[in-house]
Amino acid sequence: MTIRRIGEFTDAPVRRGRPPLDRERLVGAALEVLDEVGLDGLTMRCLADRLGVKAASLYWHVGNKEELLGLVADEIGAGVREPDLSLAWRERLEALAWENRRVLLSHRDAVRILAGATPTGSNRLRLAEITLRALLEAGLAHQEAAHASLLLTDYATGFVSEEVMLANAARKRGMRLEEALAEVRGQFESLPVEEYPSMVMLAGQLTNADADERFRFGLEVLLDGLEKRLIEGG
Amino acid sequence: MTIRRIGEFTDAPVRRGRPPLDRERLVGAALEVLDEVGLDGLTMRCLADRLGVKAASLYWHVGNKEELLGLVADEIGAGVREPDLSLAWRERLEALAWENRRVLLSHRDAVRILAGATPTGSNRLRLAEITLRALLEAGLAHQEAAHASLLLTDYATGFVSEEVMLANAARKRGMRLEEALAEVRGQFESLPVEEYPSMVMLAGQLTNADADERFRFGLEVLLDGLEKRLIEGG
DNA sequence: ACCTGAACACCGTTCAAGT
DNA sequence: ACCTGAACACCGTTCAAGT
Question: Measured between CB atoms, which of B151, B198, B214 is closest to A132?
Fold first, then answer.
């Protein structure tokens, strides 16, 4: 007579003490792998390894890799905290933009995943809704509010995608961000002055490491531009 | 005695009447493949096929795929026409933004390639220079001009990347863009009204197909915001 | 119900060898 | 100088089979 472990040959076997996979654990593991090796390193095989399972098993829980990345995008997007509704519309939009950026920076290559996925999840619908509400409350026309909500979302996405690019390039070459910035500054400074007078002159400002300050600048420009339409329109 | 074709066994053989490859023809073919099958379909093997050559041959002309994509990025970027210097700073920046968008739409997945490559090519330096010049001419402070130039470039990139996403998703499902937009509109309209009042109300405006108009809106908002800093600062 | 083995049809890249 | 054959070390995905 052979000895059987509990659960063996039943409908809900406990394999080596581990519960069966589910989408939640899958997404969690994907986030871990992502932070360690980046999007290009996040392969189904590698993800399976981390979960102590074979790659083919993942396809029981998820249709394909794209669907998995969609779930990851939703999970990351869920991290955006809604701004306090007692805030005035402008502060509310500012808070939203900062939250967007924070979340896009919260996991390696999060921008690439969020920007690559069509926004279907309910989190993103909710964020669109509160953005629109603030814009309508401010007094923008319907079409302008619609445009502006996309504009604000795209701003955060575009900013972070740019912000992260040099950092990634630096990492790939084993440099720190500051070193990479200094290198670029040197390149700008040594450009031919007659041909590139402004680049040479602004070499320092163009390679300013203070991304927060730059994000604030762009956000203010955007909101100032929107506010102008308000006054003229109303 | 064996018959030899002209050039055989010499240092510059003409193979089957075709000149040997060079980087220029490589980049040209890459652009063709890109437009037909998109970035994901642009493989070294497929590109080699198109050139009547084996994949390994490409590595004689180019270090690796990333370098090739860098060359493609440069080639695409070279299509941006410089604005007439007789224009006022604001019109010059507007022209630049529209040119940026036009070029980013001129080849399939051009945004992904341009946004993914660190801007090293001389074209992009030149564009940065004339953008900065316009901003300084307008009267922006050095740091603000530097920030604003990135802001404007990122705007075009971010806009097109968003603009192209739904179109790509539609293509993958064999739909036309208008159909996809109508579908999304339907989804927004049938959202629960108590939870998503603004989304329901603005379903039509959010799925407006007029991307030109939306681009113009965002650009005006940006430039208005910049102009405000001018008046206050000067 | 959940997982595995083994395969399929791909990738980018290298390198000794051909002409 | 330029190209090829053949291989290496990977991919995502499928599917019959196991438990």
Answer: B198
